Each structure stands twice: as C-alpha cells, then as structure tokens.
Fold this sequence. Notes:
Layout: H1 18-29, H2 34-60, H3 64-85, H4 91-116, H5 131-151, E1 176-179, E2 183-186, H6 189-198, H7 207-233, H8 242-291, E3 293-308, E4 314-320, E5 325-329, E6 346-352, E7 358-363, E8 372-374, H9 381-384, E9 394-396, H10 400-406
Parallel strand pairs: 3-8
Antiparallel strand pairs: 1-9, 2-3, 3-4, 3-6, 4-5, 5-9, 6-7
Helix pairs in contact: 2-3, 2-8, 3-4, 4-5, 6-8, 7-8
Amino acid sequence: MRNKSVAETPVPKLNVNPTQDMSRFGKTVFSGSPFLFWTLGPCCLLCAIFFGFFTYATTRDHDVAKAVVGGVLTIISLCGVLVLFNPTRFSWAGRVVTGSIFAAYVFYAFHEIFVLRHPWSWGGSRGATTPVNSLLGLFFIGGPCLWYTLFKRFSLKKEPVPAPRPRQAGLQAVKTIGPAPRIQRPLHTSEAAVLQEMSVFPPVEKTSRRLAWVTLWATACLAGIVGFFWSASHVETGPGWMPMAMAFCFLFPIFTFYAAYANLRVFFHLRRVTRIWREKVLPERQEAIESGMASVVRVEAAKLIVIEEEWGDMAMLFELADGNTLFLRGEDYVPPGEDAIWPAARFEIVRSAVNDMWILFWSENAPLEPALTVPFTAMPDEFTRNENCPFSESILAGSAEENLHRLGYQPEKDGEW
C-alpha cells in the first residue's frame, strides 16, 4: 500500500455557520454566569443611568422623539441587568432585549434601503453602513434574536431533552427495621460542659463596621457616576486630560459597585446569623441544659465495613450482635480530640432528650479494624447521590456483608469475598 502524498491528503473543511455561532453566543450570555453579570451588568446599569438622565433632559426640553428613544433605551438597559442576574427568573427581560435588537436591525435596514437609498455594493467593509450589511445583520443577528423572542431559544430545532439516567437496582432491596434504639439518662458532667460551651455566642464581626464599608463604597460609586457625567459634559471644552478622566470615571463605579454590593451581602448575612442564634439556637441549647436529660444511641459492634465517599467522608456498616446492621453516614460521626480511637467497637451518640439537639459523639478504647474498605467507584451512582438510601442511624436487617450487596456493591474483581 502506497502512502498518500501531501497533495492527495484531503483538507478538512472548516465548519463555519454564523447562525450556530450566534446560538452559542446567546446561550453563553444568558447562562447566568456570575463573571458575565459582574462585567456586563455594571455597564448595562451605567447605560440605564445615562439614558435616564438623557430622557429627563430631552423631556425638559420638550423633545418628544429623543425622550421616547431615551426611555426605550433605559428600559432595555435595565432588562439587560435583570437577564444577566437571573436568566431563568427574568426570562421575559431577555426577550425584551432580543426583541429590541431585532427591531433595531429592522429599522437599520429600512433606513438604509428606503430612506438614505445608499448604493448596493458588495465586498466592502463590514463596518460600512450599506444596505447589504444591514440585511446581513438582520439575517444573522436579528433573526436569532427574533427566534429567541418568539420561542425562547436561539436554535431552530428544539434542544433534545437528555434521557433519564437508568436507576440502579439493589437499593430497593435494603430492608430497614427502624431507627437505632435510644435510652434516656441524665447528662454527664462532660456533656453538660459541652452544652455550656455551645451556648456561648461565637465571635462575629460587628454589623456596624460592615455597614460603614457599604456606605463608603456606595458613596465612591455615586461619586464615580457623577464624575463620569460631569467629565462627559466638559470633554469638548475641558483640558486634554478630560477624556482620560471620563474613561476612569466610567470604570471606577463598576468596581466600587461590586464592593458595595459584596459588603451589603455580608452585612445582611451577619444580621441573619445573629438573629437565628438569638431566636432559635440559643433557646434550644438553654432548654437542653435545663432539662438535664440525654437521649443516647449506644452501639457495640462485632464487624465493620467502610464505604469511602467521593469527597473524603465515609459510610459505615456496623454489624451488631443480633445479626443486624447499623448504618451511619455523614461527617458528624467522628469523636472529638486527636487521641480518640475511631472506628471503635463501642461508642455512643448523645443528643438532648428534649429537642433532639446534637451534643456529643464519643468512643471507648476498643478499636475496630474494618473487615473491608470499599472505594466509592464500586458503588452505584444512586448510592453516591444518596437516593433511596436508608437514613443514617437506621437498623438494617441482615449482616453487614448482605446489606453492602443490597446497596448495589459491585466488586471490581471476581471472588473478592
């Protein structure tokens, strides 16, 4: 077999489709990306403010045509901010923007063809105002925008709905006897001390300081906006550095607006944390201290199987003396202290008997080595997503090995057991 020469090698064709490019561009812009919101959103907001002042000035001068144009551009700019912030919730705003773009290209084509009557020339610059360029823009940009306005999508065909993932069999076979039995007893001294420590309000930044930062950045943002309009009104009569000052005043509010918004979010977060602590968390802990009673799950296991989780946690199957299995899953089941022995054959889960509030998890000096450690790749996706899985601290019928297979375990090598 002879080798093909370079000349005989077919040249791959470039897949250039302007409508597909416009579709990808529209999906990216309306994707709800925080980066796009914080880069394009402030620009749209500044445009809305600028056109709002323009509308006010033209209305005061009784120029109805310019006032209407300024009002429409103000609404479009505000809709741009909304759709960049949340395209799902404010999808109507996206339709307003795309519909306006289509209407602008229709007006552009009508104005070029029937009003100005520019000559029809081919092969000129793409930036030139010609009837040909107006029709090309109407087709490749205005067309997808009209399609999105009518059908809320940029592509001509409906996007295929992904088929549901096949549900893994096996999890339905797990038989749960019920929650782990509990006993009530008085709180130990160490447990009461833990509750006392939990009742101390954690150090939280003062909201007054955060509010001061909000005021500072909001004032700076407002000063940048005022400076932009002042420099724009004096750019022709002012000194040579005035255009640079106008450009700086245009960019400065974008960053200061983000800083003011971020500090305002932290301010409301601190207020919410403080309110929840005082109204809910602290009364529950004080109630647990006053009751003086604990609800305890006491476990003595003979065998353990550990299932590793994808993010470093683990699920555990403790085989009990009666032949059933205790299922634990979550990040709370780790005894405090670096010297604590875990996993252990004997341990307790301590909660308040009054409101079931978590108090302590501790183990005795009885280490229990896992009989098997299963990687998360050997478990089905349904178990990883925690769908149809038993609740933590549930008693499962059967041994730990039987329940592992009922949870969908598939050994990577035959004959592992």
